[in-house]
Structure formats: C-alpha cells, structure tokens
Design brief:
Length: about 170
C-alpha cells in the first residue's frame, strides 16, 4: 500500500472518482512546501480553457521552508498508484514524511514537472483555470468549512496573492 497526499483536484471526490474509488482519508499538514497556481495544465481541454489566455494554471507545490498547506492522505494499492501516475502524467513523485496522529508516515506527493513534452510548464504569471479552481475549492469545503478556509488561505498564485485574496 502507498500513502498519497492529495492537495488539489484529488481532494474533490467527483474528480478522484474519474481515476480511482474515493476512500477514507486523513487531514494532514504539509510543512516546508507551498501550494501555488503556477503549473500549466497538460490537458486544457478537460476544463474548456483557452490556451491563448493566461488562465491555464492548476495547483502545484514548490519547496518553501517557511510555508505549509493542508491536504488529505489516503492509501492506494499498487494498481491504483499506477492509475494515479497516469492521471498525473506531467508530474513526478516526491516522498515526504508527514505527522499523522503523532506517527511519522511516509507518503507520496505529485509535483508538476518544469518541462513536459518539450513545453515549459511553470510560470508565475499564470492564473487558475476557473473550473479547476472551483472543483478544488468544492472538494476542500466538502471536507469541512475550516478545511476549505485553510485551503483558500494556504494556496497562492504566482504573484504572491492567496486564493482568498484573488477571489475578493
């Protein structure tokens, strides 16, 4: 079994169900990383996003010792992990240790690649794809109001604004 950290679209049960069956999860806090909308979506057509506009970003994570963000962790078997790797094909995996109920647990996060199929994928000028942002926030607020508010406050745009500030 593999522990997966979900921090964006995979926290939305409907979105996750397109790949694997949603399951019980635990809320976790990821320290030393920042969640940021700086990653160009590799499949813009899924969100009816115009590639000529700058609203092409999905959430990504970058190392940042002063930051932290909320996420969920759930277990998958090896077959499901392979299915998630196909879903997240423009990402690589990173092992992290998270504290879950006082226990240190090894988990896997998907992090966006800087280059994918010869295309630069990261840019701080990108803005969130509206439909994608809506799905992420819907998933966060379905976990709880508190989780959703923390998600908005710990998710940034490339220009430094939080999602909370962006939506004002």
């Amino acid at each position: 079994m593999v522990n997966i950290i979900a921090y964006a679209s995979m926290i939305n049960k409907e979105s996750l169900a397109r790949t694997i069956t949603p399951r019980k999860s635990k809320e976790v806090l990821i320290k030393g990383y920042k969640r940021i909308f700086n990653q160009r979506a590799s499949r813009l057509h899924l969100y009816n996003a115009d590639p000529k506009q700058n609203k092409v970003a999905i959430a990504n994570i970058i190392p940042d010792e002063t930051s932290s963000f909320n996420a969920i962790m759930f277990e998958v078997d090896d077959y499901e992990f392979e299915k998630l790797k196909i879903r997240q094909k423009s990402c690589h995996t990173k092992k992290v240790i998270v504290n879950v109920e006082g226990n240190k647990t090894e988990s896997i996060m998907f992090i966006g690649n800087k280059v994918y199929e010869g295309m630069e994928m990261q840019n701080d000028d990108y803005l969130p794809i509206e439909l994608y942002l809506k799905k992420c926030r819907q998933g966060a607020y379905e976990i709880s109001e508190e989780f959703g508010k923390q998600w908005d406050a710990t998710t940034c745009l490339g220009d430094g604004r939080t999602v909370k500030e962006y939506l004002k």
